[in-house]
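Budget justification aside, the reviewers requested a transparent look at the raw inputs and outputs of the sequence design task funded under Objective 1. We therefore reproduce one unedited record. The lines immediately below are the structure tokens for a 227-residue chain.
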């Protein structure tokens, strides 16, 4: 899976400074949020920097493909606006949300058992499907043409770069194999990204000591050769 993750040339043309650290973990044993995961979220909130320049870079990236960041916020922007009451989802999701808040970068988590083919970041045609919930009921949407999306062979897994995840690939308490995507734009340093990846890896090992964890840095200059 890691070897086949790719960033399309079209996304590279839009933001050549984009880089994503992909972290794959197999053999996870999750479970509901607990005192430890809540403590991690609280500690991250205390260290958060809502004015981090990385946030402005993401807002600019959203505007570049036609999204309005005031209406559909980058994922870390949404979290940083909830520092007084960060959402508690489950142990694994809480772990990566804490890293997102502490390191001011978007972090997504995907259930690999629900994936169909490799993850790739592309600009949508508008024909792709995105399964979500609307008014409390299952619904299918389509991204706008040109929208930056993560997708697999079945459809869109995350709309507007890192705004909203589909229902199909969400990490649940029963997830055992997961993919985490730590996304950056300039001026975010590779050293800080690597540190965030190390912290996420350490926290996943605290949850699941026997998990196997691997990572790979993916950038647009690799082109479309992986898919």
């Amino acid at each position: 899976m890691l070897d086949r993750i790719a960033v399309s040339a079209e996304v590279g043309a839009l933001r050549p400074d984009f880089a994503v650290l992909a972290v794959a973990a197999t053999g996870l044993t999750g479970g509901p949020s607990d005192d430890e995961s809540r403590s991690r979220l609280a500690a991250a909130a205390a260290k958060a920097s809502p004015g981090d320049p990385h946030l402005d870079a993401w807002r600019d990236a959203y505007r570049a493909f036609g999204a309005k960041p005031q209406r559909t916020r980058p994922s870390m922007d949404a979290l940083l606006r909830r520092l007084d009451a960060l959402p508690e989802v489950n142990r694994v999701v809480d772990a990566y949300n804490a890293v997102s808040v502490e390191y001011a970068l978007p972090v997504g988590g995907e259930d690999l058992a629900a994936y169909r083919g490799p993850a790739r970041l592309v600009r949508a045609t508008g024909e792709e499907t995105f399964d979500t919930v609307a008014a409390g009921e299952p619904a299918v949407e389509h991204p706008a043409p040109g929208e930056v999306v993560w997708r697999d062979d079945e459809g869109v897994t995350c709309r507007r770069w890192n705004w909203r995840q589909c229902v199909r690939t969400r990490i649940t308490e029963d997830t055992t194999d997961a993919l985490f995507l730590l996304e950056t734009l300039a001026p975010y340093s590779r050293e800080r990204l690597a540190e965030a990846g190390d912290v996420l890896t350490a926290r996943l090992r605290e949850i699941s000591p026997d998990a196997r964890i691997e990572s790979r840095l993916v950038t647009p200059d690799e082109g479309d050769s992986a898919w």
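The radius of gyration is 16 Å. The chain has six helices and eleven strands. Computational costs for records of this kind are itemized in the attached budget.
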